[in-house]
C-alpha cells in the first residue's frame, strides 16, 4: 500500500529550457485543512530523503502537530518518488533526466498547494538540508504567500566549499565502471559504497567520531558504522537519482530566481517571511558562517545555531536532544 | 641527476611481522654537520610528498638555516623514492608491499642518522601532516636523543574522524576498476582524479573557498582549481604508494610504540623534548582540539595554532603569511 499521492503536473518547462513531460509530484499530508485554509505547513524533503524520512519532526504535542496543522510533505524531484531518472520513461530516463533547480521544484510544489488544495497562504515552510534550500526558495518565489520559514542545516546559496564536497560524492559514483555513464541496468554498487565512505566524514563532526557517538546508536565499531549505516544508507538509492539531486544541490542559489539576475543579496532582502535560520553548530558543509551572512541580508530573520556535535545530522532526527531543540523553535516561530 | 642519496638498510623486520627486504631510505641533506654534531635537524616528509616538497621551510636567514644547521630530510617509506610499492621487486611489490608504521619509519631514519652520520643528539625534529606523525614518533622512540620537536598540522594519534576521511580517499582509488586490486600496469587515472576531488574539500577550509583564495594562486575558476591543482596533484602519484602511505596514516598512534601497550597518554607523557605543537586553526582533518588534548599530556609542550583559513595547507608552504608564522616559531624553539 502506497502511503503517498501523486499530483500530475503535465508538461513542465524547466529553468534549463527542457520540458519535464508528464511530471509527477509525490506528496503526503498530515492533519486536516481548516475552513479558512490558514493552518498550512509545507515541509520539503532532502538529498535522497523521501516523505517518511521527515516524519520524526511531526507529532501530537510537537510544533508540527497534525491535530492543529495541515502538513504537506512534497517529495523533491529526483528522489525516486516524484519524477526522477529512475522512474521517467524514455527518452528522458537515466542520464537524460533534465536538470531541475530549487526554483523548478518549488514552482511545482506551488501548483500542488494552489491547484490541488486551493491554498493561498502558508503558515510555515520548513526543511532540512536541501529541504532548507527549497524553504528559502519558497520565501523568494512567493513572498506574499509564505508567512514564516525555518530552514535548518541548509543554505540559500550552495557555497563553493559545499560544491567541492559534492564533487567528491559525484566522482565516487562515476569512478565505478558499472555506472556506465548512467546507462546501467544494475546499480553501481561499489560506487554507492564509496559514496557512503566519502559522505561519512562530512555528515558528522570530528567531535562526533571523537566521542564515538555511533556506539550508542548500536554500532559495535567504526567499521561497523561505516558499513551498517553509511554504505547501507546509499546502497538503497539509485545512482542517477543521486546525481540528479546533486546537480540541483550544487546549483542552489535563490539569486537565480527570475527577476533577481543572480543577485543573491537582493533575493535575500526580498524575503518577507519571518524567519529562524538554524544551522548545526558543527555542520561541515553548511557551516554557520554562511547562514550568518544570509541573516544579515534578511529583513526579519533570527540566527539560532543548534548546539550539537552531530554535524549536519543535528537536523537528521536521530538524536532526541537536537530534535527537541528544533521543535522548541518551531513552536516559538509558529506562535509568533 | 638525482638530488638525493639512498641509504641501504638491508632487511628490516617491521612491526607487522613481515620483513622489508633490501629496504632503501632516500634522503637529502642541507648544510654541514658541525664538529660536535650538535646542529642536526630531521624533517620527515608527508603524505605523498618527497624531499624537495619540504624545501620551502629551509633557507638562509630562516629557522632551518643550512648555514647554521645540518638538515636531513628522510623520505617516508611508500613515497616513491624510499622503498615503496612502486619500486620494490617481486614478490613484495604493488599490493604485497608490507604495512609500515610511523614507528618503523622512524626506526629506519634513526639508523640513517646514527649509522651513516654518527649523530647522537638531534636539535629539532619537525614535520607537516604525516611528517608531524613521524616527529612525535621520534620523540617517543628516542626520548633522550631528541631535544625539540615542532609537529605542525598533524597528530600523535590519527583520530577516528581522520580515519573516516581517509576511507573516502581509499575508496576513490579502489572503486576504479583499472586499479585491479593493485595489480595494474597503468595507473587508475579516474581513481586518482576522484581522489583529487575528494581531497579538495578536506585540504582547505570552507573559508578558503568562500574567499576564492585559489584565484590569487593563478586558477581562473573553481573547476580550474579542481582540475589544475587537485587532479594534477594526484595524477603524478602511484595508486599503490598512496594506499601504502594511507595505511601508515590511518594506523598512526604513538601509543603503539613497544613498551606502551597502546597507552596513548603514557606515550605522550614520556616525551622529553621541548615541543611546540602547531595545528592549523581551520584544519578539517587535524582539528586543533586533538592537539590541545595532546599538549595537556605532554610535559614540556606549548600549543600554538596557525591563525589561517588555509585549512590543512596552512602548513603546506603555499602562502607566505603562514610560512612566516611557522618560521618565526621554528626560530623561537631553536633559540630556547
In words, what does this structure look like?
The structure is a homodimer of 336-residue chains. The first copy, chain A, has 336 residues and is α/β, with parallel strands linked by helices. Chain A has 2 domains: 238 residues, 3-Layer(aba) Sandwich (Rossmann fold), CATH 3.40.50; 84 residues, Rna Polymerase Sigma Factor, Chain: A (Orthogonal Bundle). Chain A is 36% helix and 14% strand. The first copy, chain A, has 10 helices and 8 strands. In chain A, strands 1-2-4-3-5-6-7-8 form an 8-stranded mixed beta sheet, with helices on both faces. In chain A, strand 1 and strand 2 form a beta hairpin. The longest helix of chain A is centred in the last third of the chain and has 16 residues. The first copy, chain A, is globular. The model of chain A has no long low-confidence stretch (mean pLDDT 98). Chains A and B meet through helix 3, helix 4 and helix 5 of A and helix 3, helix 4 and helix 5 of B.
Shape of chain A: globular
Count of DSSP H/I helices of chain A: 10
Q: Identify the quaternary structure here.
A: homodimer
CATH superfamily descriptor of the largest domain in chain A = Alpha/Beta hydrolase fold, catalytic domain
**Structural class estimated from helices and strands of chain A:** alpha/beta
* CATH-assigned fold name of the largest domain in chain A: Rossmann fold
Poorly predicted residue ranges of chain A: none
- Rg on CA atoms of chain A, Å: 19 Å
What is the distance, rounded to the nearest whole angstrom, between the alpha carbons of the first and last residues of chain A? 39 Å
Annotated CATH architecture of the largest domain in chain A: 3-Layer(aba) Sandwich
Order of helices and strands of chain A: EEEEHEHEHHHHHHEHEH
Number of strands of chain A: 8
Q: Summarize the largest interface: chains and residue counts.
A: A-B, 39 and 40 residues
In total, the number of domains of chain A comes to 2
Amino acid at each position: 500500500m502506497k502511503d503517498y499521492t501523486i499530483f500530475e503536473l503535465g508538461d513542465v518547462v524547466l529553468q534549463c529550457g527542457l520540458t519535464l513531460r508528464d511530471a509527477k509530484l509525490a506528496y503526503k499530508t498530515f492533519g486536516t485543512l481548516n475552513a479558512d485554509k490558514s493552518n498550512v505547513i509545507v515541509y520539503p524533503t532532502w538529498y535522497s530523503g523521501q516523505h517518511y524520512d521527515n516524519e520524526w519532526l511531526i507529532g501530537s504535542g510537537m510544533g508540527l502537530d497534525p491535530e492543529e496543522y495541515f502538513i504537506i510533505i512534497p517529495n523533491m524531484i529526483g528522489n525516486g518518488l516524484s519524477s526522477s531518472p529512475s522512474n521517467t520513461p524514455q527518452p528522458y530516463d537515466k542520464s537524460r533526466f533534465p536538470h531541475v533547480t530549487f526554483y523548478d521544484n518549488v514552482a511545482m510544489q506551488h501548483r500542488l498547494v494552489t491547484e490541488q488544495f486551493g491554498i493561498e497562504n502558508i503558515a510555515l515552510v520548513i526543511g532540512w538540508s536541501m529541504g532548507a534550500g527549497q524553504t528559502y526558495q519558497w520565501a523568494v518565489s512567493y513572498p506574499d504567500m509564505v508567512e514564516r520559514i525555518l530552514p535548518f542545516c541548509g543554505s540559500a546559496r550552495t557555497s563553493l566549499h559545499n560544491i567541492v564536497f559534492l564533487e567528491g560524492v559525484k566522482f565516487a559514483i562515476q569512478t565505478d565502471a558499472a555506472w556506465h555513464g548512467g546507462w546501467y541496468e544494475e546499480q553501481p554498487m561499489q560506487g554507492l559504497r564509496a559514496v557512503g565512505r566519502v559522505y561519512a566524514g562530512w555528515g558528522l563532526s570530528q567531535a562526533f567520531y571523537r566521542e564515538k557517538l555511533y556506539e550508542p546508536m548500536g554500532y559495535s565499531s567504526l567499521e561497523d558504522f561505516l558499513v551498517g549505516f553509511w554504505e547501507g544508507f546509499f546502497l538503497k538509492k539509485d545512482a542517477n537519482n543521486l546525481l540528479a539531486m546533486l546537480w540541483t544541490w550544487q546549483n542552489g542559489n535563490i539569486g537565480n530566481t527570475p527577476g533577481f539576475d543572480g543577485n543573491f543579496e537582493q533575493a535575500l532582502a526580498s524575503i518577507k517571511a519571518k524567519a529562524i535560520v538554524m544551522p548545526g553548530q558543527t555542520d561541515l558543509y553548511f557551516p554557520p558562517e554562511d547562514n550568518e551572512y544570509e541573516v544579515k541580508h534578511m529583513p526579519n530573520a533570527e540566527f539560532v545555531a543548534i548546539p550539537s556535535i552531530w554535524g549536519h545530522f543535528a537536523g537528521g532526527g536521530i538524536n532526541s536532544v537536537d530534535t527537541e531543540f528544533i521543535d522548541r523553535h518551531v513552536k516559538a516561530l509558529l506562535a509568533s
